[in-house]
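Now for one protein, fold included:
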Amino acid sequence: MIRNSVENIKKMNEYLEQKNYEDIDILDLMRFIAIKKGAKLPYNVSIQTLENNITLKDHVLFILLDGFGYLKACSLPDTSILKQNLKTSIDTVNPTSTACVLTSLYTGKYPSEHGVFGWWQYSRKKNLNYYPLMGVGRKTEQDVSDIVRTILPSESIFDTFKTKVNIYMNRSIIDSNYSQIFSGKKANKYGTYSIREAFSKIDQKIIPRDHSFHYLYIDGLDKTSHKYGVDSPEVMEVIYEVERGIKNLVEKHEDLTIILTADHGQVEMTNMIYLNQNQDYLKYFYAMPSIDTRTISFFVKEEYQEEFENHFCEEFSEDILLLKREEVEKNEIFGNTKFSEQAKDGLGEYIGFVFHNKFLLCDKVSLEDNIYTKGNHSGLTRNETKIPLIVIGGSHE
């Protein structure tokens, strides 16, 4: 039995006790919108609850504000249009890493099915350490997008919509391989230089007496939270810019429903932990640790597994809970389905979960694994897993 600390075992048990897949999550929200826009998808209780409380008008704008957690939304002033229209919290998927959540969003599946878990990924079949979102090799920076395309799920939920679909992202990512897969074959894609330009383009594409769906991905809040901290003035300025764009659209378009949520929240960081500070753990691994810095997947050679467990728990049990992959699957931490072959291919023998306001770097020498330190995510805390459901112009009275 892995020798985890009593405190972290308690925290994991508390998380598992409150986790309920019958609660509304981001997949239910995406499936609900897809169904209302013509997709043939199965209903569940959560989707029915959304239908009972939200009316989608002729035009729908779905905003994914990267890094905007539920508790951050609650902390906004009462004058905020986002806080005024905050309906409830919903769950995101785990790990709370952007690549994982975005893949769940466009596939309509949990990570346990689609198998993309985080910022860093490893494929046993391809023997490849890579970045799913960027399509490049980890450390090598070589273009491996052709290989990554064979690993990522290829069907997008947006192709099931029976209405016009417009997708807006930063110009630097709109034509990436990942964005093309995410958008599907039928959606129109528009690159933008700024939040203001994005809302201006959406304004132009909302045509009276027509029907349309608009997806806007805003990555600036997450980047700013990483760099300056969750509660920084810089973060608030990004939020205010989003609010200005929303207010302008609401004033111009009565036939528009705006739904805003996030992929995850963030936590203020107090410290970095170095995996190799006191000894070389890399000798235990056949692949680089993956996922992210608050949920970490370890690929451990069979002959070293007992030694790895003992050394790791002796050094890190105060901050990190270590589970075997089978325990993660049994407890449905990454989804309420059995791990698919794709999921098994991308997960190591052990998964570590950081519960305190710290994050783990797995390379003592090369610190480029994490540039920003003030805010972070990918863990299981409420700040990271609870996201807002904000509905403007489509709530039932």
